């Protein structure tokens, strides 16, 4: 069972999420928080697998709560569930340690799939947020030394990772073993100084590293 904590200051939103998630055989909602402070306290008590975190909440917002949770319990996944798709909200959320970023207008089934994908270690960012990021971040200057630091194969892996593919899917695409992909991803994390797949994908978009070994 995937144990979920819901953190949102709107009672109606929490009730709606609870109602739908209770119908899933592999998901269990183990707690609810109406602000960031309660979310941090409940994570300490309940140790959920994933937190559905609202971005704007009283007392402590989702960004602050995410930073505190990831600093103390890095194994807990955070999925931001919000109404904001602009870079001023998306980037801080990912940098704080969120493994995914979804908008509240997504279909319930898509939300459930996002939860399962994040538990499997995949990165999930809503298309609207991704588009906004790409348009904004590509305006920044690329870093040639970062490109050169990655081997051609690592750039291939990063390009596939940015598409949201799992280790197994990347291994199949590049005709190597899944173990080899895990090694490449570990090296990529170290060279880019990122902590997870979502941060690596954002870094790739930000610095023009999304086209695999074709990058010169």
Describe the protein in words.
- Keywords: DNA-binding, Phosphoprotein, Transcription, Transcription regulation.
- This is Response regulator transcription factor.
- The structure is a single chain.
- This protein is of the alpha/beta class and 216 residues long.
- The chain has 2 domains: 125 residues, Response regulator (Rossmann fold, 3-Layer(aba) Sandwich), CATH 3.40.50; 75 residues, Arc Repressor Mutant, subunit A.
- It contains 11 helices and 6 strands.
- The chain has a 6-stranded parallel sheet, with helices on both faces.
- Helix 3 links the parallel strand 3 and strand 4.
- Helix 8 crosses helix 11.
- The longest helix is centred in the last third of the chain and has 15 residues.
- The protein is globular and about 50 Å long.
List keywords for this structure.
13% strand, 6 strands, six-stranded parallel beta sheet, alpha/beta, Rossmann fold, Arc Repressor Mutant, subunit A, 216 residues
- How many structural domains can be distinguished in the coordinates? 2
Mean pLDDT: 86
Could you tell me the CATH topology label of the largest domain. Rossmann fold
Relevant CATH superfamily of the largest domain: Response regulator
CATH class of the largest domain: Alpha Beta
How is the largest sheet built, in terms of strand order? 2-1-3-4-5-6
Could you estimate the helical fraction of the residues in percent?
Answer: 40-55%
The unreliable regions are: none
Terminal Cα span: 45 Å
Number of helices: 11
Biggest pleated-sheet summary: 6 strands, parallel
């Amino acid at each position: 069972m995937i144990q979920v904590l819901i953190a949102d200051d709107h009672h109606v939103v929490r009730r709606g999420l609870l109602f739908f998630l209770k119908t899933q055989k592999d998901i269990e909602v183990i707690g609810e928080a109406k602000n960031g402070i309660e979310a941090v306290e409940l994570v300490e008590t309940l140790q959920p697998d994933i937190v559905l975190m609202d971005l704007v909440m009283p007392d402590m917002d989702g960004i602050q709560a995410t930073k505190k949770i990831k600093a103390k319990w890095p194994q807990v996944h955070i999925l931001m569930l919000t109404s904001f798709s602009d870079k001023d909200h998306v980037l801080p959320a990912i940098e704080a340690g969120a493994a995914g970023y979804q908008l509240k207008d997504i279909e319930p089934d898509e939300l459930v799939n996002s939860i399962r994908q994040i538990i499997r270690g995949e990165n999930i960012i809503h298309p609207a947020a991704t588009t906004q990021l790409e348009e904004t971040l590509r305006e920044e200057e690329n870093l040639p030394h970062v490109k050169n630091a990655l081997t051609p194969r690592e750039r291939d892996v990063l390009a596939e990772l940015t598409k949201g593919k799992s280790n197994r899917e990347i291994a199949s695409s590049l005709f190597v073993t899944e173990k080899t992909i895990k090694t490449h991803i570990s090296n990529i994390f170290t060279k880019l100084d990122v902590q997870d797949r979502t941060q690596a994908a954002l870094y790739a978009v930000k610095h023009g590293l999304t086209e695999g070994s074709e990058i010169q």
